[in-house]
Amino acid sequence: MTALITLSHGSRHALAGKGIERLAKFVAAQIGEPALAAHLDFESPSLSEAAVRLDAAGATRAVVVPLLFTSAFHARHDVPAALAQARETSGIELLAAESVGTGTDMVDMLSERVNHEAPQGAHIVLYSVGSSDQAANAAVAELAARVGVATGHSAESVVATGGAGTGPAGVIEVALKHRAIHLLPLFFTRSLLLDKLTERLQDIASATGTTMTASGPLGTVVADIVAARYHVAVNSSPSHLGGSET
Fold first, then answer.
1. Number of DSSP helices (H) and strands (E) in the chain, helices first
2. One Pfam annotation, family name (predicted)?
């Protein structure tokens, strides 16, 4: 048995954890293996707690898929630290998968959402949490540009945090330049940061004269990508390839 553990950042939003659990269950049905949702912060179970639960349920190993889009601080430091601790406290083998990322499969998935949900001619705003790592923000900006090229919409990214030109104020700046805006959240589930913006969309529309529409958080739409990360990790493991770990 090779189980799946999705590893999210975690959120203080009351509904965020349920959204991640729903995603994990959806992927579990796709891969035919058990899955648990774990979190780096704010929510339980932690990665260590999830690994211990799977060990008790009879799993011999699990693939950990980080629900992260960029290689910023959480990916470089928090995820490896959580993996190290979980390996010490549980009795199962943990395989580290690639994060969800900003690759071609994400471009395709987001483009499909735009094609089905965005009004024709609307300017796309890819809205993400943001990072102090400028390379991470640049990766999201590039993702927005690629979605724009793929869909024929103009597109850009706005981050929720980081000072001037971010959050709702940043969206207002963009709205003043366009007749129609479609918000495309780069969030897996409900978030306090996302709610802070979506609750103001109608006010922004009234203040700017811009038509504002929005997609919801990614939710189970990203399940195929999570499942793909799982399968790559399983197929690349030494035991699958016929080797052994040294």
1. 11, 8
2. CbiX
